[in-house]
Amino acid sequence: MVKLSVIVPFYNVQQYAPDTLKSLRANARADFEFILVDDCSRDETPDILARAERELPGAVYVRHEKNGGLATARNTGIDAARGEYLTFLDGDDWLAPGYYEQLLGSIEDLGCDFVRTDHVQCTARARTIHRVPQGRRGVVMNPRDAILPADRSTSVDYAYAWAGIYHRRLVDRGLLHFTHGLRTAEDRPWIWKLHREAESFATVGLLGVFYRRGVASSLTQIGDVRQLDFIRAFDQVVAETAEDRDAEKLLPKAVRTYCAIISHHLGSIERFEPAVARKLKSMSAVALRRMPQDVLDDALDSMDIQRATRLRRLRRRPAATGVAA
C-alpha cells in the first residue's frame, strides 16, 4: 500500500523543476509516490518530467492537454493519488532531505485529520521563516477553534496547501479538492472548508519546505486578469461561511479578510495592466455591495483609516454595467 502521495503541479518551470525533482529524490521511500502533473507547459518542463518518470522512484507522470490552472492540476493529482496520506508541493519549490518521513511521522503520532507546518520563504538569496499563526504546537485541536479572532492573523490566513499533510479520509469526505478553475487564491476556500468541516488538526514546528518567491512566471508576479480570480475565491468563502451553523461568529472574519485582500490589490494597482486595473476596481466595488452590509460596516470600522477610506470610497463607486465576478 502507498503510505504517502505527493502531488506536484508544474507549469512552465523548466528553470526550477530539476531542483524540485532532486529534492523529491532525497525524500523517496518505497511506499511514497510522487504524482507529477504537467498543466500543459509550453517550455521544456514536459521533457524534464518524462525523464523523471523513468528515473525518480515512485514517480507518476500525468499531463494535461489543456491548461487548467493550479487548482485543477492539484485535483488531477488528488484523483490519481493512492496514498493513505496526501501532501502537496509546487513545481518551483523544494524540500529538505528526509522531510516527508518526518512529516508523515508527525501526523501518525498525532492521529488527526491534518497537520500544518512552518516553511522557509526564499526570495533571491534571502531566507525567512514563516510560522503557522497558531501558538499551540503538537496538540490536537478542533479546526473551527483556530478560525478566530477576526482581527488577527489565524490558521485560515496561512493558506499554503503544501505546508501540511492530510489524511485520506478528508478526500473521502470531499474536503480536500480545490474549486475547479481557480487560477489564484485557490487555497482560500480550501483552507476555510478544512477548518470548518474537518474534525481535528495540529500544528508542528517542522521546517523542510522551501517556498520560492519572486518567480517571474508566478501569478503573484503577473498583473493580468487571472489575478482577479481572488474575487471568485472569496465570494465562495463568504457564501459558504454564511451557511455555517456559526455564521454569526465566523462571517466577520471572512468579510474582514476579503476586505483586506481587496485593499492590498488596490494598494499595488500599478502592477496591473490598465484594463485589468479598471476591472479590479469595478469588480471589487460590486463585491463589496454583495457582502452582508452590517458585517461589512463593522469590518470597515475595525480597520485602519487608510484601508477603510480606500474601501469606503470604492463602495460608493457607481455600479458599472456588465461587471460580474
Question: How do you describe this structure in short?
Answer:
With 325 residues, the protein is of the alpha/beta class.
Topology:
Elements: E1 4-10, H1 17-25, E2 32-38, H2 45-55, E3 59-63, H3 70-80, E4 85-88, E5 94-95, H4 99-110, E6 114-117, E7 119-123, E8 126-130, E9 164-167, H5 169-172, H6 187-197, E10 201-204, E11 209-213, H7 229-242, H8 247-267, H9 274-290, H10 293-302, H11 305-315
Parallel strand pairs: 1-2, 1-4, 2-3, 6-10, 7-11
Antiparallel strand pairs: 4-9, 5-11, 6-9, 7-8
Helix pairs in contact: 6-7, 7-8, 8-9, 8-10, 8-11
Domain Glycosyltransferase 2-like: 5-133
InterPro entries: Glyco_trans_2-like, Nucleotide-diphossugar_trans
Organism: Streptomyces sp. R35
Protein architecture, described:
By secondary structure, this protein is an alpha/beta fold. It is built from 11 helices and 11 strands. A 7-stranded mixed beta sheet has the order 3-2-1-4-9-6-10, sandwiched between helices. Strands 5-11-7-8 form a 4-stranded mixed beta sheet. Strand 7 (119-123) and strand 8 form a beta hairpin. Helix 8 packs antiparallel against helix 9. 43% of the residues are buried. Mean pLDDT is 94; it is low at 321-325.
The backbone outline, from C-alpha atoms, is globular
Task: Tell me the Rg in angstroms.
Answer: 20 Å
Secondary-structure element pattern, one letter each: EHEHEHEEHEEEEHHEEHHHHH
Average pLDDT figure: 94
Summed up, the helix count is 11
What distance lies between the first and last C-alpha atoms, to the nearest angstrom?
43 Å
Looking at how many chains there are and whether they match, the oligomeric state comes to: single chain
Strand order of the largest sheet: 3-2-1-4-9-6-10
**What is the percentage of strand-forming residues?**
15-25%
Extended strand count: 11
Major β-sheet profile:
7 strands, mixed
How would you classify the helix and strand content by structural class? alpha/beta
Low-confidence stretches: 321-325
User: What proportion of the residues is helical, as a percent range?
Assistant: 40-55%
